[in-house]
Design goal:
InterPro entries: Fido (IPR003812), Fido-like_dom_sf (IPR036597), Fido_containing (IPR040198). By secondary structure, the protein is mainly α. Helices cover 65% and strands 0% of the residues.
């Protein structure tokens, strides 16, 4: 499945270090698209152009404070992901809580970075997240899986499964989707991949793939969806340097 992706990744690696201004421009483009799509999947009504002006510090009339904060917070969370990658910090539960804290900052400070104490349901999904008293154990199991088993997997498989398992646990009251996509890209960026953008127009396929992973423990559709987007991001980067 990954032969072509591996070839494109090797081509990109051979071009490193990438041109400074091309890299900066690509980062800006993907930061915007990642922020817009990840928020739109969760119901944020800002358009991509409105998201762009919010990132530039301008308020958009007729939109809620929460929608503005979701953009600013997501940008800050991406910056934190980049710092983790740059510093080569090992994956940890502490990082997950920090990412979530950034996502909900000023939106729901009481639950920012704090595991939920109530039962939640995923709208439209067959899967029911675990009861609150099971979250700590399941998050520990996720970390153990990551540390003991996931290093044998291709980075795309590892990232897609980390993302899907985390969403299945749904450890927080709110912000699980955004946090999960940050974790997916954190994993890929550690391995030198550009960020992948799960697009809002693919939301139905995305939700169905996740529900299949949660109810049948079949991650193939999730992995293929991430692989497709990873190849698209690689193509974008290669178009800038070849």
């Amino acid at each position: 499945m990954f032969e072509l992706i591996d070839q494109k990744k090797a081509r990109l690696d051979s071009k490193r270090p990438l041109p400074k201004y091309s890299l900066s421009s690509l980062r800006e483009k993907l930061l915007l698209e990642w922020t817009y799509n990840s928020n739109a999947i969760e119901g944020n009504t800002l358009t991509i152009n409105e998201t762009k002006v919010v990132l530039e510090g301008i308020t958009v009339g007729g939109k809620t404070m929460r929608e503005h904060l979701e953009v600013i917070n997501h940008r800050d969370a991406i910056t934190y992901v980049e710092q983790i990658v740059k510093n080569k910090e090992p994956f940890s539960e502490w990082q997950i809580k920090n990412l979530h804290r950034l996502i909900l900052k000023g939106i729901n400070d009481e639950y920012a970075g704090v595991y939920r104490d109530q039962q939640v349901f995923i709208s439209g999904a067959k899967h029911r997240p675990p009861a609150p008293f099971l979250i700590k154990e399941q998050m520990e199991n996720l970390i153990n899986w990551y540390e003991q088993e996931s290093n044998q997997l291709h980075p795309i498989t590892r990232g897609a499964m980390l993302h899907a398992i985390f969403v299945g646990i749904h450890p927080f009251i709110d912000g699980n989707g955004r946090t999960s996509r940050l974790l997916l890209n954190l994993e890929l960026m550690k391995e030198g991949y550009p960020p992948v953008i799960i697009k809002v127009e693919n939301r139905l396929n995305y939700y169905e793939a996740l529900d299949k992973a949660h109810t049948q423990k079949d991650y193939d559709d999730s992995i293929q969806l991430v692989a497709k987007e990873a190849e698209e991001s690689l193509d974008l980067y290669l178009s800038a340097v070849e």
